[in-house]
């Protein structure tokens, strides 16, 4: 089952893999024609009722695969109002090749005739809300006709994200849906057609995944999360990098909790950082109360960058997780305590493969085996894992993603802190798997853009200004 939003992301990822949408439309139209062949013999009268989006475009294609049928193509609206290039091109082919095309300017002038089969290609996954005119009137006419109705992708009037019907919907005898089942469809009537989208378009992160991040225009301050980075002690650069990365990944506000002794140094990395120091040289049971109170006021916490592995620090992390029930990214030395705690918190753990084994996790050399092994271990921990490597594997035990952006130049120190900070910001608004996958994608893409431009020798801090374009656009790939 796939929602309309996720389908759009997969579609964009497929395009990035070199499969343009027009090619998918050709496969979709072919699949529609195959279902028509199943329900009626050659020579039967087939009315293709087409909207102005790509759903209509699929039926324009189908017409070319039904030359031995008596085909009529109805376009609801003027040809100039066809909304996409690929649908417009396929319409132009029909008129150039002299198919029986009819342009419906006015719903009252719509005449369905007496077809044996009606193909409902008015609206698909791009529809929002109740059917408007002329689609509403035409849907009623289709429902009254004594024809076999084949719906393309979803019956027009059914919301492809929720499966709900607001008002009128086409009552279909068969639905030919593409790539995967859509919400709200009755299994008995559905043919899921393989339109040649490779599994990679779903499994691997790609530019389509960034669709999750669209910022609503009425966003108010706070809608994208306040993030607390807990780190520093032996190391000061790590929490500063993580905090800056969280800011670059769109967090509204980022605060750093670190030992007072290093607060000035952490602050020195970036004027915009808000530092909330605690007493002592490192995180311990003694200053944990301060951190716990701060954490409760934030949407997500990033735990680990530069904390060190002092016994008292790890004990404090353990105590923190015992009480915490919010969202947290766990990185670096703090990872070791995760398997030992029984916490209500929602954790996104970001180990590299050595740290994963330190957590008692699996070893798998081949990335395909690793996907299964990481999924099993995530299910066992009941947390989400982002296992870093040439192929990053992200899994919550149920959903798994693999990220391939990034390059050997990124083995330099600090890139993991940037990743953890970005993941923390995204964790405030996204499901943990999506936060991990998007952070890995953007962090790696940022590194790829730098290396493309200037070659190796990148610093982790170089990644920071590249995070926004990697997450929100301006990406030339
Ligand atoms: N990989 C894929 O998903 C592929 C899908 N294909 C087909 O494309 C459609 C989705 O196409 P899209 O252009 O995005 O949207 P629609 O055709 O569904 O409709 C857009 C069109 O409709 C207008 N509109 C929106 N809501 C309403 C409404 N309530 N009443 C009336 N009109 C409405 C809107 O203004 C737009 O103009 C998918 O379902 C598949 O069939 C590709 O062919 C191949 C790959
Ligand atoms: K449809």
TrEMBL record:
It comes from the Archaea. AMP binds at residue 416. Its cofactor is K(+); Mg(2+). Residues 205-474 form the YjeF C-terminal domain. Keywords: ATP-binding, Isomerase, Lyase, Metal-binding, Multifunctional enzyme, NAD, NADP, Nucleotide-binding, Potassium. GO terms for biological process: nicotinamide nucleotide metabolic process. PROSITE patterns: YJEF_C_3, YJEF_N. Residues 7-203 form the YjeF N-terminal domain. It catalyses: (6S)-NADHX + ADP = AMP + phosphate + NADH + H(+); (6S)-NADPHX + ADP = AMP + phosphate + NADPH + H(+); (6R)-NADPHX = (6S)-NADPHX; (6R)-NADHX = (6S)-NADHX. The keyword Signal does not apply. (6S)-NADPHX binds at residues 54-58, 124-130, 153, 238, 306, 352, 417. Binds 1 potassium ion per subunit. K(+) binds at residues 55, 120, 156. The keyword NADP applies. Its EC number is 4.2.1.136, 5.1.99.6. Pfam families: Carb_kinase, YjeF_N. One of its GO terms (molecular function) is ATP binding. NCBIfam families: yjeF_cterm, yjeF_nterm. Belongs to the NnrD/CARKD family. In the C-terminal section; belongs to the NnrD/CARKD family. Catalyzes the epimerization of the S- and R-forms of NAD(P)HX, a damaged form of NAD(P)H that is a result of enzymatic or heat-dependent hydration. This is a prerequisite for the S-specific NAD(P)H-hydrate dehydratase to allow the repair of both epimers of NAD(P)HX. Homotetramer. This is Bifunctional NAD(P)H-hydrate repair enzyme. The gene is nnrD.
């Amino acid at each position: 089952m796939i929602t309309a939003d996720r389908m759009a992301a997969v579609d964009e990822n497929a395009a990035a893999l070199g499969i343009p949408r027009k090619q998918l439309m050709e496969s979709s139209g072919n699949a529609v024609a195959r279902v028509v062949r199943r329900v009626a013999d050659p020579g039967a009268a087939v009315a293709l009722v087409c909207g102005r989006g790509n759903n209509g475009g699929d039926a324009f294609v189908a017409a070319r695969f039904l030359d031995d049928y008596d085909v009529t193509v109805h376009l609801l609206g003027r040809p100039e109002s066809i909304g996409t290039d690929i649908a417009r091109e396929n319409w132009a082919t029909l008129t150039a090749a002299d198919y029986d095309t009819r342009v419906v300017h006015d719903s009252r002038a719509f005449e369905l005739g007496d077809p044996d089969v009606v193909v409902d290609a008015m609206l698909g996954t791009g529809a929002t809300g109740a059917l408007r005119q002329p689609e509403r009137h035409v849907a009623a006419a289709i429902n009254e006709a004594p024809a076999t109705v084949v719906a393309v992708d979803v019956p027009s009037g059914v919301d492809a994200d929720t499966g709900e019907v607001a008002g009128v919907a086409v009552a279909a005898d068969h639905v030919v849906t593409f790539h995967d089942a859509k919400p709200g469809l009755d299994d008995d009537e559905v043919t899921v057609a393989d339109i040649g989208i490779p599994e990679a378009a779903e499994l691997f992160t790609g530019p389509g995944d960034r669709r999750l991040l669209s910022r609503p225009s009425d966003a108010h301050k706070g809608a994208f999360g306040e993030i607390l980075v807990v780190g520093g002690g032996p190391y000061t650069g790590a929490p500063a990098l993580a905090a800056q990365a969280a800011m670059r990944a769109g967090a509204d506000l980022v605060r750093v909790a670190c030992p007072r002794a290093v607060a000035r140094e952490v602050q020195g990395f970036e004027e915009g950082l808000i530092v909330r120091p605690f007493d002592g040289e490192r995180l311990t049971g003694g200053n944990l109360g301060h951190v716990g109170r701060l954490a409760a006021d934030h949407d997500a916490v990033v735990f680990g960058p530069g904390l060190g592995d002092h016994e008292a620090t790890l004990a404090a992390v353990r105590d923190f997780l015992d009480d915490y029930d919010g969202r947290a990214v766990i990185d670096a030395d703090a990872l070791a305590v995760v398997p030992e705690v029984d916490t209500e918190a929602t954790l996104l753990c970001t180990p590299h493969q050595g740290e994963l084994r330190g957590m008692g996790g699996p070893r798998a050399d081949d990335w395909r085996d690793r996907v299964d092994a990481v999924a099993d271990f995530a299910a066992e921990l009941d947390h989400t894992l982002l296992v870093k490597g040439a192929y990053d594997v992200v899994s919550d035990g149920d959903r798994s993603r693999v990220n391939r952006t990034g390059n050997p130049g990124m083995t330099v120190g600090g890139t993991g802190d940037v990743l953890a900070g970005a993941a923390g910001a995204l964790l405030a608004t996204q499901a943990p798997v999506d936060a991990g996958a998007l952070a890995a994608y953007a962090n790696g893409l940022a590194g790829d853009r730098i290396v493309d431009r200037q070659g190796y020798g990148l610093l982790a801090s170089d990644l920071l200004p590249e995070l926004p374009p990697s997450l929100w656009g301006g990406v030339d790939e």
